[in-house]
Amino acid sequence: MKQRIGTFALVFGIVAVLLGAVWVAPSWAIPIPTVQIGLEDTDAPDKVSSALQIMILLTVLTLAPSILIMTTSFSRIIIVLSFLRQAMGTQQTPPTQILIGLALFLTLFVMNPVWTQVNESALQPYLEEKISQAEALQIASIPIKKFMMGQTREKDLALFLNMHEGEPPPEKVEDVAITSIVPAFIISELKTAFQIGFLIYIPFLILDMVVASILLSMGMMMLPPVLISLPFKLMLFVMVDGWYLTVGSLMKSFG
Question: In Å, how far are 34, 62, 231 from 94, measured between CA atoms?
Fold first, then answer.
């Protein structure tokens, strides 16, 4: 015990000597870098332009998930898969992470031709410095606009185009503003997803009604019909190869 106390005292003494030396002679201390953040005035337009570009880039990266969801097929796919899980009554099976992952990979499959066209016509020429950044953005928006226009109802698009009073109606897809296509595309996707979800709900709803009527006729009013119908729903879904039919119908709906 005395040996441990002596060792501790020796170590404490060495540390105290070192701290005293640093306090007495600051030149011996290890220099610690300082970080300063501030705003300075500048007269160079290049610096202002670079700062604004960085700020815009960070803003776009922050909104990237929303852009991915709202301008691709992701929203329709994830809504239909959510309707399917609710119709089956399996609570959290499949888990939300699996549904989101499946929706992302199905989105990659659907959007692959569009993104390939964007890469070949806009991104690669821009990286090779054949076109400017503004030209690359304009060229890249055309395939995305065509995809959204193909899935957007004319009624929804006309709703937002008519709100721009005093502007002539666009003659080509390139002339339609992205601010008008995106909300119209989202509304059309929501309607299509709810229509598919309604069709998915019908067979499971009929099965629930049959089970509920059987339990009521047997006098089992306290037994939840959903608890009894769940195994039959799973059996029906597996027998008809439900995942194949659901995913296949989803992919064909983007044709």
Answer: 51, 29, 15
pTM: 0.71
Which DSSP string corresponds to 119-179?
IIIIIHHHHTTSS-HHHHHHHHHHHHHHHHHHHS-HHHHHHHHTTSTTSPPPSSGGGS-HH
Spatial CB neighbours of 161, under 8 Å, sequence gap ≥ 6: 169, 170, 176, 180
**Segment 242-254 mean pLDDT:** 88
SS3 59: helix
Q: Report residue 224 as tokens.
A: 């939840």
Query: For the segment 133-157, what is each residue's pLDDT rounded down to a tens digit?
Result: 778 878 888 888 888 888 888 888 8
**What does the DSSP assignment read for 166-225?**
TSPPPSSGGGS-HHHHHHHHHHHHHHHHHHHHHHHHHHHHHHHHHHHHHHHHTT-TTS-H
| Distance from C-alpha of 48 to C-alpha of 40, rounded to nearest angstrom | 11
Identity at 126, one-letter amino acid code? Y
Question: Which tokens belong to 78?
Answer: 């994830």
Q: Which of 67, 81, 63, 105 shows the shortest CA–CA distance to 185? A: 67
Q: Which two tokens stand for residue 253?
A: 């709906």
